[in-house]
């Protein structure tokens, strides 16, 4: 039976890597964030107050289109970041910071809520939860120039919004992965454990958690 899994989490937490690894293990197809040049980005970075709304509408449009395509895909898929995060985390954060005014943000929310209701939800959201030190360390290791200006305070703010969102998310089951403790790149046992938990959650098991003892055993199984 076809499954649709979305991997969610903050910047640098390891979403794309986990998407790739899950697909290799499960034989599913990965769907990454669309590499599409946002024509508003240059203007946005020069004047965030003037162009934040336009930029977020562009991102939302492409994310909605990708979600629609995933719903029509014949096989099982794993998605790197969901449309929900665009709206509930990043657009909301720009609103809280004052870069999107109340009127424009309400228009954005109305569009997002109306269109997202028409889309089939994922079968599972895998939420990678990590502390700011872990995020900063992973961002530094991958060495992307445009990420060098990201501050711990910015990541902490996004973490707070992620936690609020995931706590109230009810469209599908959620599997919270303790990314501080699980290094699925270095430890094949950690990846195996995540795959097992994903499969348990997809088969309908309600209470699926990562016990510290089994995390330790998984690392020792490499």
Mean pLDDT, to the nearest integer, reads: 90
Kindly state the number of beta strands.
Answer: 5
> What class do helices, strands and sheet pairing give?
alpha/beta
Shape label:
globular
Percent of residues in helices comes to: 55-70%
Spatially, the strands of the biggest sheet line up as 2-3-1-4-5
Query: Kindly, what is the distance between the CA atoms of the first and last residues, rounded to a whole number of angstroms?
Result: 31 Å
Indicate the radius of gyration in whole angstroms. 18 Å
Q: Topology as H/E string?
A: EHEHHEHHEHHEHH
- Please outline the major beta sheet: 5 strands, parallel
Ranges where pLDDT stays below 50 over 5 or more residues in a row are: none
Put simply, the count of helices is: 9
Strand content: 5-15%
